[in-house]
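BUG: 3D viewer hangs when loading the predicted structure for this chain

Environment: internal workstation, default settings.
Expected: structure renders.
Actual: progress bar stalls at 90%.

Input used:
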Amino acid sequence: MSVTLADIEAAAGRLAGLAVETPLIGSAALDEALGLRVLFKAETLQRVGAFKFRGAYNRLAQLPEAARKAGVVAFSSGNHAQGVALAARMLGMPAVIVMPQDAPAVKVEATRGYGAEIRFYDRLTDSREAIATEIAEASGAVVVPAFDDPHIIAGQGTVGLEMMAQTRAMGLTPDMVVAPISGGGLVSGVATAVKALNPSTAVFGVEPEGFDDTRLSLETGERTIIKPTGRTLCDSLESPFPGQITLPIMRETLAGVAVVSDAEVAEAVRCAVSRLKLVVEPGGAAGLAALLAGKIPAQAGDLVVVVLSGGNIDPGLLARIVSGEL
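Structure tokens produced before the viewer hung:
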């Protein structure tokens, strides 16, 4: 099962007037420091503060009326949760979100604020998939995956469709596009759109240390499921495996995958605040982290577009990062 440019264009039609067409933001000082032209796709300014609204709405909008009455169930540490909760509210259907007990408070509060019911689980002892399946079987609700669904991928692909239209309007063509990877829904959709519109643009994904399952899967040629031994600042990128649908797309479209440390991510969050005047959550800053750390093979003068995928960060954590404590 694949996703096409036509699927992404259809998703854009469903999202027209509902999703924010987020801006491309640049920094002359950062360009000079890096020797590149860098533009940032600020999905931090999207509804729910992350790109996830795009895929969630595209998926829910295609549910038949009978299915809408039973509602939806999803599992997420926060951004997908918020996207599904808001889309469900807009479409008039109930939503239950299965969230880890240690999910960032700002994401829990926002999800609840959009009207969803929250069921907490212990990420060390419980199976979120099993809990969601149990809820779905009992209520008839539709399970909405975070990334491994063609409609979700197509919705996220509208990020790439927009950035290509925006750069084209500026008379520019990206040499490289960089986006974070969790399960691969965002980068798969973005890469599908970008490569269809300009095959010569290289697309790179970025994962946090300890959660580099996509990099390993692409290297071995087999879908690799890792067993995390700790946490990462990038709570939104903690999927231990790539999707069954997303992995073949990434194998076909990605030029490579970079891996970044928590220290590099923290530096990127600080850079976003100081240079771009944007609040970016750690996972959302992974692409910028890879660029700052020299892990993206850009050449002098290249135009690089980096997706800043989300901005939902607890104020206390942001303060600790900006102060240099982390």
